[in-house]
Amino acid sequence: GFYFGRRLGSWALVLLLIAYVGASFLLPPHHPGPRPLLPVVAFNAALFAFAGGIMVLTLGSFRERMDQFRLICKRFELGDSNAQFEPEKDRLPDDLTLVARSFNEMRARLVELIGTDPLTGVLNRRAFEARLHREWRYAKRRDSTLALLMLDIDNFKPVNDTHGHASGDQALLELAEIMKVTARDTDTVGRHGGDEFVVLLPDTGWQGAMAFAERLRKNVDDHTFMVNGIVLEITISIGVALAHGTDPISVDDLQEQADRSLYRAKSGGRNRISA
């Protein structure tokens, strides 16, 4: 009965206990001899109640959790790639927890496979945010740090207006290549939209994040962006945010901090870093 919920499981346990006690005193024994003594019946009933209670407590929510997992799979089947099970909320992990974690990993990797920006080859916004959520869960689980860089090209609109969108696209492509070369294998580069990019640095503290940001800024500043024989003056501004796995913040809070840092970098004169 516990498979169908804790309430039904509890009722089934109570009825079984009543049936056992009643049968012990009312029904004739199977073998000749005296009836079981009250202390023996009480001990057996208490032992059964303890074991049955653990079963109901542990597995009583299995059906409900299974229905939730089935609904999430259906949402993903219909195209909702944000649907995911939250096994971290399971107080008593079991095989369903392991299956749910595997599903989440498969969903995240599938989103990344189909989530590449067609122009630059880095992750698009949806795929990057899926990776960000996953890395934030890892940071919480490992009690580690996670750095997020948000950057865009300084005065990019005049490039498009003066030289055309094809030239602007070429500049974005070259910038993305610089970012991919600068990033480590464990880092993630994504395009947030337009000329705005993001970089995710797992297991990176403030010193490492600022050093990476400066290296990236300098690599862009030193690079010669040339389109149709014309040299484009391209620089970037970078906002840096960092969170520890124990910090009581959300992924949205981390992105908002990085966005505010980027705004300060732009307001402070561009071609600089703010954190």
- Specify the structural class: alpha+beta
Overall pLDDT metric: 85
How does the overall form come out from the CA principal axes? elongated
Radius of gyration: 29 Å
SSE pattern, N- to C-terminal: HHHHHEHHEEHEEEHE
> Approximately what portion of the residues adopt beta-strand conformation?
5-15%
Total beta strand runs:
7
Strand ordering within the main sheet: 2-3-1-6-7
Tally of helical runs: 9
Distance between the termini: 56 Å
Low-confidence parts, pLDDT < 50 over ≥5 residues?
none
Q: Can you summarize the main beta sheet?
A: 5 strands, mixed
Helix content: 55-70%
Please supply descriptive tags for the structure shown above.
single chain; about 280 residues; five-stranded mixed sheet; two-stranded antiparallel sheet; 9 helices
Could you explain the architecture of this structure?
By secondary structure, this protein is an alpha+beta fold. The protein contains nine helices and seven strands. The chain has helices spanning 6-26, 38-59, 62-77, 95-113, 125-142, 156-163, 165-182, 206-222, 251-267; strands at 145-153, 188-193, 196-202, 225-227, 230-232, 236-244, 273-274. The strands form two sheets. Strands 2-3-1-6-7 form a five-stranded mixed β-sheet, sandwiched between helices. A two-stranded antiparallel sheet has the order 4-5. It is elongated, with a radius of gyration of 29 Å. The two termini are 56 Å apart.
